[in-house]
Amino acid sequence: MSSNRLVKVVFVLLITMQLLACGRAHVPVTQAETPKESNTPVMNVRTKLKAGSITYTALGDSTGAGVGAIEGGYVVRVFKRLREERPESTLVNLCVSGSDSGDVLRSQLSRAIDSNPQLVTIGVGINDIGHGVSLDEFNKNLDEILSRLKNETSAVIVVSNLPDVSTSRRVSITMRPQSQQTIIRFNNEIQKLATKNGVIVVDVFAATRDELPKHPEYYSSDGFHPSDKGYELWAQQMWSTIGKIVGPGVAP
């Protein structure tokens, strides 16, 4: 194996180790690329829900499934808040640990549509990076997921962008700037596709970039996935947007 080939293999292995599911962290954004504004709705975003109980369906990876926590991930925490506003609402949590965008497309999307949701959240992409999925393939997969949800359901669709996991203790210091820039590129793609398909993006990246360095307790014992406190931060970010959509009297 040539030295250049060996360097590439080592790089992929390191990225895979650090991005196997999802967590949080912080490194200053380099001049090469910065995340674009993410949670400003565009004109055709669907932002109204029917009155009364709703079905909330979640698609995604281990962060939606709650790996690393005792009391569940951001999905169940969002649902707990939702039940306070809409007591008879139901949750269909389709998130599976290790899922990338292709897995969501193949194994979760049809079931999500069949659940007849009024609210959908999606959190996926970190495993695409870890599995070596190209940005073009991620774009194709997520575009199909979002367009089908938009066209085949009446749901309000909310996408979480990727958290800044670049300073997880499982990421070597020398790899952190490259890791962060990869996450930023995927997040910019998420924003572009959300705008194209008229869905809402919640900026989890900014919150994790800013808060995680101050709060190591936001990581679970594996040093990568969020802890209960870390998921609470994520849920708070999600609810800051979703709460405005499901609050009393938002739809007739």
Keyword list:
252 residues; alpha/beta; Rossmann fold; five-stranded parallel beta sheet; 5 strands
Describe this protein's structure.
The protein has helices at 3-18, 62-65, 74-85, 101-114, 126-130, 135-152, 176-197, 204-211, 228-246, and strands spanning 55-60, 90-93, 119-123, 156-160, 200-202. It has 252 residues and is α/β, with parallel strands linked by helices. It has a single domain (3-18, 45-246), classed as Rossmann fold (3-Layer(aba) Sandwich). Helix 7 (176-197) links the parallel strand 4 and strand 5.
Beta percentage is 5-15%
Supply the CATH superfamily name: SGNH hydrolase
Total helix count? 9
Overall 3D shape: globular
Mean pLDDT: 79
| Low-confidence sequence ranges | 1-32, 37-43
Radius of gyration: 17 Å
Distance between the termini: 65 Å
The CATH topology annotation reads as Rossmann fold
CATH architecture: 3-Layer(aba) Sandwich
| CATH class assignment | Alpha Beta
